[in-house]
Design brief:
Elements lengths: L6 H7 L3 H12 L2 H4 L5 H8 L13 E4 L14 E4 L1 H6 L3 H14 L1
Antiparallel strand pairs: 1-2
């Protein structure tokens, strides 16, 4: 297997080629890659096709209220539809509470 991995980096990480191959095989089979993708159309049909904060509908995204990385799920009660601007704000600490408050007031 030609991995094109810098030997110095492998030494710093304490990896030999066998361990590196194992790590790569695990990353290709990890839970996130195997996670069943939710049906976006079903979500849009249930929640609408516009930002749940400002009503913008030209470009929308689905946001997990409780992230999958923190044991969130793809259930409709954990999803909201947001424009890219408001979606981005949910990932910035100083805006997160304001966005959540606006979502709570809109429901």
């Amino acid at each position: 297997m030609n991995l094109n991995i810098n030997q110095e980096l492998m030494d710093v990480l304490g990896l030999d080629e066998l361990r590196l191959k194992w790590l790569i095989s695990q990353s290709k089979n990890n839970e996130l890659n195997q996670r069943k993708k939710f049906d976006r159309e079903k979500v849009f049909n249930k929640l609408g096709r516009k930002c749940q904060i400002c009503g913008f509908s030209e470009l929308i995204e689905i946001h997990h209220i409780n992230p999958v990385s923190k044991d969130g799920n793809d259930n409709l009660d954990n999803l909201v539809i947001l424009c890219p601007n408001h979606h981005g704000m949910t990932h910035i600490d100083r805006f997160r509470d304001k966005i959540q408050e606006r979502l709570n007031n809109g429901k």
